[in-house]
Description:
The chain is an alpha+beta fold. The chain has helices at about 30-35, 60-65, 95-100, 155-165, 200-220, and strands spanning about 10-15, 20-25, 45-50, 70-75, 90-95, 110-115, 115-125, 130, 140-150, 180, 185-190, 225-230.
Amino acid sequence: xxxxxGDFIRLDYTGKIQETNEVFDTxxxxxxxxxxxxxxxxxYGAIPIVVGSGHILPALDDSIEGMxxxxxxxxxxxxxxxxxxxxxxxxxxxxxxxxxxxxIKPQVGMAITSEGHTGIIxxxxxxxxxxxxNHELAGKNLEYQVKVEEIIEDDAEKVKSMIELHYPxxxxxxxxxxxxxxxxxxxxxxxxxxxxxxxxxxxxxTMIRFRLARDIYENMENVxxxxxxxxxxxxxxxxxxxxxxxxxxxxEVVxxxxxxxxxxxxSEE
Length: 269
């Protein structure tokens, strides 16, 4: 069955710069290691996406439509269809004194953030610093090797795949997510380890849930509402009654101990 817009799939890919054959991104750990771009903070393997939902470059989205499960393809993406042409207006000269005010010693290759935009320092000369706010792949023609590993059919697995995409966390076990469908609504109980995530702020989690919910109700039939439930259960104490003798010997001392409460393990930072 060919892939169509709105399908939930798992996609393997490797992206290269056409001019240099340099690998800049991949879902394959061996390829990442060979290209010396391996990151311990990244989980490798086919990524879940919804075709046509903006999870990947539009040029890739368009080319994936019509592929079959298990099919591989090499795609060429022009600079215009990739990360755009280089814009000379995004090269900015910043006085050295501005860095000194922030206690920063500028160096070539250093990334800085200004007004929500990230730039790379290209030159440091005298009292001026050149910062490039173009995307690092702007102006480059790209080549992608893609493979549709799986077309996800099960509704619960579709929801879990979006949790994996929007809430990547190696400490979460997908099998511990509980997904319930009822009357046009999806109720999500995530693995309880998500409750102890100290890496994300409340606002970050809210935005993640919004994007996750949107992908679900826009691409799953008969779903118009997504509900997240954070449930905390009281640990029940033992109800078994121990037999107590009518009278204890005077010299015998009995020390009662309350059962210890088992706390949930904290997630790894």
